Fold each of these.
Amino acid sequence: MKQTTLSKRDIKDLNTEISKTYGVDDFFSKNDFMAMADDTYVMKDGTVMFFYKQDLLLPSLSLLLSNNFLKKIIVNMGAVPHVVRGADVMRPGIVGVDTYVKEKEIVVVVDENNLKPLAIGQSLFSKDEMQEMETGKMVLNLHYVGDEVWNYLNAE
């Protein structure tokens, strides 16, 4: 694992990117111990907080377990085993969508019973479009429980 400590300037640039992408200001303090691992994983105190995939800066599920700042797509319990194995979210499994979800927005997929994060995805349609449709793929699954990001530190 190649790891590089982030400078205060790097942290400021990262905060700017997080603010532009997710609307969350000053996510990290300039005094936080931050590192970039394998040119992909943004780590704070040894935990993956964000990662880059397809030029997108995405939050990790472990971060969202303690600080969820994304809009939610709620799925029924029948969809859970598929989503946590990396399947995209299909319309029949969706039981709820946060207000103002837009097309191509990064969202968190949660289960209907516990509202626990299962996956990070990119919505393929707006909330209104999703509600009008009865079938089809609604959310592209980008990160899920048990994938390479989830297991990154455990694989070392």
Amino acid sequence: MNAAPHASATARPHWQRALRHGSLVLGGALTLLVLAAALLSLWWTPWSPFAMDMGQRLAPPGAAHWLGTDAFGRDVASLLLVGARSSLLAGVVAVGIGLAIGTALGLLAAARRGWVEELVMRLADFSFAFPAVLSAILFTAAWGPGLVNAIVAIGIFNIPVFARVARAGALAVWSREYVLAARACGKGMLRTTLEHVLPNIAPMLIVQATVQFALAILAEAALSYLGLGTQPPQPSWGRMLSDAQTLMHQAPLLAVWPGMAIACAVLGLNLLGDGLRDLLDPRMRAR
């Protein structure tokens, strides 16, 4: 019966440290705002994002259309809400691809060493020669433009990033006494990796995932801006910027709203990553 108060007492200082960290709180709030916008758009938007009203084209913000309308008379607020789904989908899937494959390769390289490590690292160096935009162009030439190809291109670019982070962290853990003791007790390489190495490098992987999430949102917006990502009529923040560039003198707010949405998402994730690094890193916590 005394276990619950004891657990609450030990957990409270951790949450108090988190709430006192300005970057973590602000980054979490901005990230939750973007996530809430994407979830809200699944059930409700002020107007249909696909409904066009040429009689209301380029209307200024008002009671009917809170953020105005675009060149086709579509409600900008609705486009922003639905566009958040494309950005978050690209970020989650692309980071998931990089995290799963890259972490596995990095752990393999640190555990096996020798020619396996050399092969994995050289493949990672080779992958860095094909950034997300260039990979998307190659995929577009082969299979046509689309959000799926853009996500795959961003995910492939994330693989060597996580492979390097996982390898560097795993090499440090493999030299620790408790890992050597586990090996001396007869634990195999796979079991040692899963029970001792992976849990100890998980915090740095989480921090790196938040950073790559922000970069994935930027990359998706850039690819959609170039016409290689999300295709019309599906709304996208990058596509909204592309459509607004020819109307800067008539309706400059059309470029401001998606720009602010991208900045909010990227800033929130970067601040969240900095806050998590300070919170999870024992050296930063002590400082």
Amino acid sequence: MKRKYQIYILNTMIAILIGVFLFSTYRFIRISYYKESNKKTNNKIIKEVVIPNDSSNDENKEDGEFKIDFAKLKEINSDVVGWIYIPGTKINYPIVQRKDNWYYLNHDIYKKYNIMGSIFMNAWNQSDFSDSNTILFGHNNHQDSLMFTDLKEIYDGVLGNELTIYIYTEREVYTYQIYSVYLASPSDETPLNMKTNFFDHTQREFIYDKSDSVKTLTLSTCYKDSSQRIIVHASRNV
């Protein structure tokens, strides 16, 4: 009886280990598939709607000198409200917005299911970036620099202390200077307050002109896990 019990326990443990291995393998393959799909999707949308200026090259591209074909972009997805580009990073994506903050957590620009999601604007913001604080969300996949992963580079100080964000809209291109970056708890709603400036909330020093500040752009993503978020604030240049 004891021998049979030991065999039963051993077989149960082996079954559990096999199950864990199969689940881990499935999860790895699934995440890898969606990461690769996200890369292909972003490359495709860039080819379809990003228009280099006649004089553009790699150097002046960092001045935001390219155009977005918003007519074509909105044919692809009517939820588009803009495009974000941060020189020195791989952040170069369309921005979408719906009446909820859930859909684009796991849907791409073509509205296809993808766990990498999209860069999306807070549902309660005005879509024309006219609020005192416009908030954008995106995933951090901790590898591959997809979506908002490169915000960690900003938090770690890898990209220096003078950083510009370009926001393309149908009307114009807005430039923002990053002035604050820090970690916050997901339960802390202060960084998402639409009527707050955040000049004293930073764990890194940045070069910017505070006198030019009129509106804030806030970027939010998870840090190493869901227990903390990276928050980046930038001030729009007049």
Amino acid sequence: MYTEWVNAFWMTEQKPDEYYIPRVMIDKSHQSKGYGRKLMELLIDEIKAQNPKAIHIVYCDRNNVARSLYKTLGFIEYGKNDGGDTLAKIVL
């Protein structure tokens, strides 16, 4: 699931041409099989086809597996959201 960073009730600012991935979930019984990486690679490619300026993602601060995966995909952490989750982005 992803959206362009515009016109959503929770967005305090508009970021045209930037995309946001609010959550990525893989069922526990299918984790550690490479599905998350493949899903993210396909998702990033799909978003890149729309010529974005950046792709943002949010994840639980305690989820070190997600942090490691997103880092290897090029995401750079830049802060926390109001709920304390980590924000990261790829600038294109």
